[in-house]
Write a structure and sequence with these properties.
The complex is a heterodimer. Chain A is of the alpha+beta class. Chain A has 24 helices and 26 strands. Among the domains of chain A are: about 170 residues, no CATH class; about 220 residues, no CATH class; about 160 residues, no CATH class. Chain B is α/β, with parallel strands linked by helices. Classes of the chains: A alpha+beta, B alpha/beta.
Chain lengths: ~850, ~250
């Protein structure tokens, strides 16, 4: 019987390959995701390992121990004099003081703008490159030499490569200071890492860096190596007593582990994000497998019956079909596994194209990748094959002597609608629970959303066989109008086996539903975003960093004040801080001027509150006030570090649009803010001009801020447009990932059509014999395919919109809008038609090729 | 596995009704048959007479509404599917009108399929003898699509004989063949009864085919209406016409 299963597959190579493809892509996505994220992980961990390779302990400043969405306050500097003290300690062999900046160093590219890192760090280091201290230097010089004195810099190989920098050239770099020219004296790479992705590196000598980063007489960190035989613990105990309160000492290993944990969180989020798409692809694939095996089992009814008359037991029939599924699944998984290696490269290229370049080391192909890919792919195929296999066992031996024997209906088939409705009900309960229940942890919430959506799709797919008839009647209308008799037959064909059409359409339905869901949700988000900005901003111009969300050096904002033709220039500082004991975003504003750029919606207080607000005044957003029970008049401590805290009083509470609050959770005056924060940075600088904003003023602002290439001057409308554009870019990225599942459903449609044509050989022969032309035969198959695709779209669109409405409702606290993106959804329907046309190419050709005479002799 | 009295299949008062209520059709209205060992029994009758139904029930492919059927001493009408499956492996062989060969297996693999299903190996001597007698020696590695209809039916007959079943049921074995090839197949069936001692029950509507039988049973309206032994083709044909006229 094993041989029977193997030969069955070998005898149907084309079909087997098409079936397997449905799983190959999903598995490739799993394997590709693992390979990519493992490779990124390895790159990062080698970056961190290299960073601290020769370092036993690190002394650094200590910021308030809080983290808001992974952001922590900047660490304060340590006195340079500490270096000599540490060097004087008995157990210390060597020590190096360094300046480390990871946000303010902007290398200017060809276009005069800062080289974009898209959120990745832009490092600026001041390193002592004396040979005796080389153990502390994580960089390896590829070309040239280390920088000596002002005006020299070493840049990383990745940036040099992308921007075409060569040793001896001059590059402009801005820091806390406006941009200055530096001579590139060397090109270095970080440890053994091939590329740092979009992160950039500029290495200066220590005193230059101290000047650029406002660290005169100070360091950000001191790296220490102990004399032979001292333990890290000994070093720490010896160094600890001489440190001031706002400094700390940690082992290099601990520091590396901390950094790694931080990045590990990011890569694991990224991994699960991509795996979710792999899961969707496999889910769609399982529909295709289920459908294809169901059809082939039905077509082989006679074969199974014959086997039964020859003494094969039900169990043997079951085993032989499952074995086929197993072999398909396993082969597909092996192919998918290796295709994943290619896909990882593809994904990396995709991310790079989107400006999300990630560091890359040698490709990591872990055992886990192999095991998970093979197991998941094989198990899913076998499970999808289980139902057809069970149906095959229900073929009675007597079917061997009946012509055109049909597969008997399953024992449970008449309960299908009931089961479907129960599944849908359970799905809705799960979705409701996950979205509206309180006190559910995130993992549980995500799990019940995934489970709910999964069940919803299965439920709708099960009940959809009942919907095929009416849907085909509607979406088949154009077929009849355009296709004439062939179109009419196509419509009839699509409803002759509603279960099959439904299962084929269901695979496409999933992709369509998810795209519709994402498109609708994004449309709502864009609307909310736009409204939030329009509600809050009254300024004519807004200056942000190039990426729009990281803060920029305050100097850039100050420079804008020098532009001609402005009426008002006011800044919004930003930093993470501990506010009333809780982590939050702190902004610094000029209470006298802010209302000319920003419009407050007061809950408690008024614009007049601002007029009288002093350096001890604090304005709090309503949500933060509610969460932490703050009221006007209350004393609140705001703290950013050991020696940086201030006592304030809440003077006003306001309600920003929850979707996109532009100010922080709490706001101080700029002068109070600057007392707390060592190197203050602006989130925005608002600029007003008399009358309407003109290109002239914009040019003047751009010239004024020319020294700071990270500053971006834009009008309110331009800003909104840029945010929309970023949404669209992210959407495009999601669409690419969802395209995978649409492609898989395309294979499913090809499969079903090929099998249907094969099954109807005799019928097609008859049609040809009574005068149907090849053209008409092709057209008939094509229309049938398009009708199936349209049924998929007709099921998927409402489902996607419904899910989007549900999520919008669940995110009510963020004031998310609900808007149906009609244009995009129409495009989606057109896409479904295209998918239908593509799927029909091969099957239609096969149908048209049939020789009427041979077809009638068939069997 | 023979019974003492030399009878392989015994059917008693077999009734078969399809459907329910007013639209119910009685295909068999009380048929009793004994199939003697080592003989070829033909079942004839006009279409709708119930001959196919009778064969299906005798072979355990269908269940009677009432009555009993024993094969090699085992009552089959009450058997569970799994026991019936085992019974088929050891005691029953089938030859079909449309051959029912598996297209992806070679002739040899098709022939030995019942043995592989049962997890057994062919007995070498017998297998060679069988292949010799069906005349397929140089066709063993061919697939069904590479064989003529007659050759395909030879493969099917070899398949039915390979496990030396107590009884072979042949359902219109020549119905899909031209007359020359049909004659060859009939000779082969006759040969397997005479030389190999096989018991065969054959349903046919051709008197030419029934002429090779030791005994011919006539069915009409779900009843056995006539029985001939050792009759010539002409006698068989005339009897058939008589029955059709009634």
């Amino acid at each position: 019987m094993t041989r029977f299963a193997l030969k069955s597959l070998a005898g149907r190579k084309f079909r087997t390959i098409l079936t397997a493809l449905a799983i190959v892509l999903g598995v490739a996505m799993i394997s590709g995701t693992y390979v990519l994220t493992d490779t990124i992980d390895k790159a990062f961990s080698s970056i961190f390992a290299d960073s601290y390779a020769g370092t036993d302990v690190v002394v650094s400043g200590r910021a308030a121990d809080i983290s808001v969405f992974g952001e922590s306050p900047q660490t304060p500097p340590i006195e340079a004099s500490l270096l000599d003290e540490i060097r004087g300690l008995d157990s210390v062999e060597i020590a190096m003081g360094g300046v480390y900046d990871e946000a303010n160093t902007k290398i200017v590219g060809d276009d005069g703008k800062a080289v974009s890192t898209n959120g990745a760090p832009s490092f600026g280091f001041g390193l002592d490159t004396s040979p005796e201290l080389s153990v502390f230097n994580p960089l390896n010089l590829l070309e040239g030499r280390w920088p000596r004195g002002d005006g020299e810099v070493v840049v990383d190989a990745g940036t040099a490569d992308r921007e075409d920098f060569a040793v001896g050239e001059t590059v402009a770099i801005s820091t806390l200071k406006p941009k200055q020219d530096f001579e590139v004296v060397g090109i270095a790479k970080y440890g053994d890492v091939e590329s740092l992705g979009t992160a950039t590196f500029a290495i200066f000598d220590v005193s230059t860096a101290q000047g650029l980063f406002d660290r005169e007489g100070e360091f950000d960190a001191i790296s220490v190596a102990g004399v032979d035989g001292t333990t890290t613990e000994q070093l720490i105990t010896e160094i600890q007593p001489i440190l001031p309160a706002d400094a700390q000492v940690k082992s290099g290993a601990a520091e590396a582990a901390e950094d790694e944990d931080e990045i590990g969180e990011f890569t694991s989020f990224f991994r699960y994000f991509l795996l979710a798409f792999a899961g969707i692809a496999l889910f769609v694939g399982s529909f295709v497998i289920f459908n294809t095996l169901s059809i082939t089992v039905a077509q082989r009814t006679r074969e199974f019956a014959t086997l039964r008359t020859l003494g094969a037991s039900r169990r043997q029939v079951l085993r032989s079909v499952l074995l086929e599924a197993f072999i398909i699944g396993f082969l597909a998984s092996v192919i998918g596994l290796f295709l994943g290696l290619l896909l990882a490269k593809g994904l990396e290229a995709l991310f790079r194209a989107l400006g999300l370049g990630l560091p890359v080391a040698d490709t990591v192909f872990a055992t886990r990748t192999v095991v998970v890919s093979l197991l998941v792919g094989t198990i899913i195929t076998v499970i999808a094959g289980l139902f057809p296999a069970i149906r095959a066992t229900r073929v009675p031996p007597i079917a061997a002597v009946r012509e055109g024997a049909e597969l008997p209906k399953g024992r449970l088939s008449r309960f299908t609608p009931v089961i479907a409705i129960v599944l849908i009900a359970v799905a809705l309960l799960l979705l409701g629970y996950s979205m509206f229940a309180d006190d559910v942890d995130t993992a549980q919430r995500l799990l019940s959303i995934a489970g709910g959506v999964l069940l919803l799709f299965v439920g709708v797919a099960m009940i959809s066989s009942k919907l095929v008839r009416p849907l085909a009647a509607v979406v088949g209308l154009p077929a009849r109008a355009i296709g004439g008799a062939a179109g009419g037959l196509a419509r009839r064909n699509s409803i002759r086996n509603p279960g099959r059409t439904a299962a084929t359409a269901a695979a496409l339905m999933i992709g369509v539903a998810l795209v519709a869901f994402v498109a609708t949700l994004a449309q709502g988000m864009k609307a909310s975003n736009r409204e939030a900005i329009e509600e809050q901003i009254v300024a004519d111009f807004i200056i942000t960093s190039q990426d729009g969300y990281t803060p920029f050096v305050a100097g850039a904002g100050d420079a804008a004040a020098n532009a001609e033709g402005t009426e008002l220039v006011t800044h919004v500082r930003s930093e993470v801080a501990e506010i009333a004991g809780h982590g939050g975003y702190l902004t610094g504003i000029d209470p006298q001027q802010i209302t000319k750029g920003y419009s407050f919606d007061w809950t408690d207080g008024s614009d007049a509150t601002l007029a009288t607000m002093g350096d001890d005044g604090l304005i709090v957003s309503e949500s933060f006030a509610e969460d932490h029970e703050l009221t006007v008049g209350q004393q609140v401590i705001v703290r950013t570090g050991e020696n940086a805290s201030t006592r304030t009083e809440v003077v006003g509470i306001y309600k920003p649009p929850p979707f996109y609050p532009l100010l922080g959770d709490a706001s101080l005056t700029i002068s109070a803010f600057d007392e707390l924060v060592d190197r203050p940075r602006n989130q925005y600088t608002f600029v007003n001009v008399p009358g309407d904003p003109t290109e002239g003023v914009k040019a003047a602002l751009e010239t004024a801020t020319d020294g700071y290439p990270d500053a971006r001057v834009q009008t309110r409308a331009e800003w909104i447009e840029k945010e929309d554009q970023e949404f669209d870019e992210f959407l495009a990225f999601l669409y690419v990932l969802l395209a995978l599942s649409v492609i898989i459903s395309l294979f499913g449609m090809v499969n079903t059509l090929v099998l249907s044509v094969f099954e109807r050989t005799r019928e097609l022969g008859m049609l040809r014999a009574v005068g149907m032309t090849r053209r008409q035969a092709r057209r008939m198959i094509r229309h049938e395919s398009v009708i199936t695709a349209l049924i998929g779209a007709a099921l998927g669109l409402p489902l996607g919109i419904f899910l989007a409405a549900l999520v919008t409702q669940a995110l009510g606290e963020f004031d998310l809008r609900f808007q149906v993106p009609t244009g995009q959804l129409i495009f989606l329907v057109i896409l479904a038609v295209v998918v239908g046309l593509l799927a029909a190419i091969t099957p239609a050709r096969r149908a048209a090729k049939l020789n009427p005479l041979e077809a009638l002799h068939y069997e | 596995m023979s019974t003492d009295n030399g009878t392989v299949v015994v059917a008693r008062d077999v009734m078969r009704r399809y459907g329910e209520g007013e639209t119910a059709v009685d295909a068999l209205r009380g048929v009793s048959v004994e199939v003697p060992r080592g003989r070829l029994t033909a079942v004839m009758g006009p279409s709708g007479s119930g001959k196919s139904t009778l064969m299906h029930i005798l072979a355990g492919l269908d269940k009677p509404t009432a009555g009993s059927v024993t094969i090699a001493g085992t009552e089959i009408t009450t058997l569970k599917d799994s026991d019936l499956t085992k019974l088929r492996r050891r005691h029953i062989g089938f030859v079909f009108q449309f051959f029912n060969l598996l297209p992806m297996l070679t002739a040899e693999e098709n022939i030995t399929l019942p043995l592989s299903i049962a997890g057994e190996k062919p007995e070498e001597g017998y297998f060679d003898e069988l292949i010799g007698s069906v005349g397929l020696k140089d066709r063993l590695s061919h697939r069904p699509s590479e064989l003529s209809g007659g050759q395909q039916q030879r493969v099917a007959i070899a398949r039915a004989l390979v496990s030396r079943p107590d009884v072979v049921f042949a359902d219109e074995p020549t119905g899909n063949l031209d007359s020359t090839t049909g004659t060859e197949i009939l000779e082969l069936l006759r040969h397997s009864v005479e030389e190999l001692g096989q018991t065969i029950v054959m349903v046919t509507h051709e008197s030419r085919a029934a002429a090779i039988a030791d005994r011919v049973l006539y069915l009409a309206d779900g009843r056995i209406v006539k029985e001939l032994s050792g009759a010539s083709q002409q006698q068989i044909s005339e009897t058939m016409d008589e029955i059709a006229r009634v």
